[in-house]
Amino acid sequence: MTSTNEENLFDVIVLGGGPAGLTAGIYLSRAKIKTLVLNEGPAGGQMVLTHEIANYPGVESINGYQLSSIMKQQAQSFGCTVKANTKVTSMDLTGPEKLVEVRGKTTYRAKAVVLATGGRSRTIGAPGEDKFKGMGISYCATCDGDFFEGKDIIVVGGGNSALEEAVSLTKYASSVTVVHQFDHFQAFESAIAEAKENPQISFIMESEIQEFHGEKSLERVTIKNMGTDEMFDKNIDGVFILIGYVPSTERLEGIVKLNERNEIVTDQDMRTSLDGVFAAGDSREKRHRQVTTAVSDGTIAALSAIEYLNGLASDN
Ligand SMILES: Cc1cc2nc3c(=O)[nH]c(=O)nc-3n(C[C@H](O)[C@H](O)[C@H](O)COP(=O)(O)OP(=O)(O)OC[C@H]3O[C@@H](n4cnc5c(N)ncnc54)[C@H](O)[C@@H]3O)c2cc1C
């Protein structure tokens, strides 16, 4: 670990600046706890990828980027230091003093840490997927939808995100074909109904993409019916893969307890297996992943961290 100085000393370091981490930052800083939020991407996490958030209470509808900016500013207004687009290169969280090194240069120290590292899109893993990423294959309808104006596209997936984004993509694309591996969807009835009622959307059920083909950009996919094993090719301009996420916990392996899906195991107070280390948001073990649940986790993790710090103070 590289050397530190006083300005790199904090009470709490929050790893991750999505809604969970920023909420923890708001609660901690407002309680006059010296807090640093370190985020590897832009502040806001997955919210930045979300065109419209319509289920955040008190705000009828808001662009994800806007909500991210508001949360970040709110944390900063209470004195929270937010460093976005930075790279955490190593960490030592085992002792009473937690060390987090950034860009191999600066080491930040704190008495407690909140892990709010979120997750990222799951890939199919079919041949050609890597080659055509950004060249016809996307994982973010909000980011890339308008590149497909007047085109024919596929949405892979059968959850809420896939069906909601299939509907939103009809604003741009001429046709949207939803390809789903099962014979039923795992989405809210309202999302299923909206997709089914949209005349631009068709469905290929019980099927998976086996391969992506093209010269420079994606031109065609091979689809397999999982029931009959029948394979066929379909010409296509773009594929949006919206099949869930992988928790960003790779660098936490062997540090805190993870479950079989690599999600951080916590108790209901967001305590992890390590003393003084808390977790919040999509990176932890839970069933429902939303901005509201991330914000709830961030609140609880912050309050638990404050209790932990108070306990340390009364021990001394
Ligand atoms: C396309 C899309 C649409 C969605 N729409 C909605 C919606 O309408 N309503 C809703 O409620 N939810 C929606 N969600 C889900 C919601 O955005 C997530 O549940 C929520 O953002 C999770 O928050 P989080 O803070 O746990 O993690 P994230 O938002 O994933 O943020 C985690 C942050 O941590 C950073 N990070 C990762 N590893 C490290 C590390 N080691 N050190 C430091 N930083 C790290 C990441 O770069 C990221 O910025 C949507 C998600 C997507 C992808």
Radius of gyration: 22 Å
Number of distinct beta strands: 18
Q: Please outline the major beta sheet.
A: 5 strands, parallel
Mean pLDDT across every amino acid position: 94
Helix content: 10-25%
Contiguous helical run count: 6
Question: Which band does the percent of strand residues land in?
Answer: 25-35%
First-to-last CA distance: 27 Å
The distinct ligands, each listed once, are:
flavin-adenine dinucleotide
Shape: elongated
Q: What is the strand arrangement across the widest sheet?
A: 3-2-1-7-18
Descriptive notes:
The protein is of the alpha/beta class and 316 residues long. It has six helices and 18 strands. It has a five-stranded parallel beta sheet, with helices on one face. Strands 9-16-10-11-12 form a five-stranded parallel beta sheet. Strands 4-5-6 form a three-stranded antiparallel beta sheet, with no helix packed on it. The chain is elongated and about 70 Å long. The structure holds flavin-adenine dinucleotide. Flavin-adenine dinucleotide is lined by residues 15-21, 38-41, 45-47, 49-50, 53, 55, 88, 116-119, 140, 142, 161, 248, 251, 281-282, 289-292, 294. Residues 15-21, 38-41, 45-47, 49-50, 53, 55, 88, 116-119, 140, 142, 161, 248, 251, 281-282, 289-292, 294 line the site of flavin-adenine dinucleotide.
Summarize the entry for a quick read.
The chain has 316 residues and is an alpha/beta fold. It contains 6 helices and 18 strands.
